[in-house]
Amino acid sequence: QVQLVESGGGLVQAGGSLRLSCVVSEGTIGNYAMGWFRQAPGKEREIVAALSRSGGNTRYTDSVKGRFTISRSNAKNTMYLQMNSLKPEDTAVYYCAADPRSTLVPATRQTSYAYWGQGTQVTVSS
């Protein structure tokens, strides 16, 4: 039922910033924990950041801590990933995902997320 629509990807130079958006359609974002994943060429898909359904709890993979910020607007039914100080190794397809389970701590395993967006390409040049 729920649909996730991503936007904001593109090409940026190292050190630059991008802001990804994920709009939750046909659903209410407050009913889901939300996550951002990415997959670089030749690598496994990995968790980037996750935001709990309630309580404002966040989790980040070590490589993006201090550079990326996950957030949501319940009023706009939208999740965001603010990416600063981008590095070439951040180049990947980024996916948003939604987890309908009622858990305090957001999941980091992709199998925990029932709904996925189509992905948006982020390319960081050196």
Task: Describe the fold and architecture.
By secondary structure, the chain is an all-beta fold. The protein contains no helices and eleven strands. The strands form two sheets. Strands 2, 4, 5, 6, 9, 10 and 11 form a seven-stranded mixed sheet that branches. β5 and β6 (58-60) form a beta hairpin.
Largest sheet: 7 strands, mixed
**Bulk shape:** globular
Mean pLDDT: 95
Number of strands: 11
The structural class is mainly beta
Q: Report the sheet-strand fraction.
A: over 45%
Uncertain segments are none
* End-to-end CA span: 40 Å
Oligomeric status: single chain
Number of helices: 0
In sequence order, what are the helices and strands, one letter per element? EEEEEEEEEEE
Whole-number radius of gyration? Answer: 13 Å
Task: State the helical fraction.
Answer: under 10%
List keywords for this structure.
single chain; 126 residues; mainly beta; seven-stranded mixed sheet; 48% strand; globular
Short description:
The chain is built from no helices and 11 strands.
Topology:
Layout: E1 3-7, E2 10-13, E3 18-25, E4 33-39, E5 46-51, E6 58-60, E7 68-73, E8 78-83, E9 92-99, E10 115-116, E11 120-125
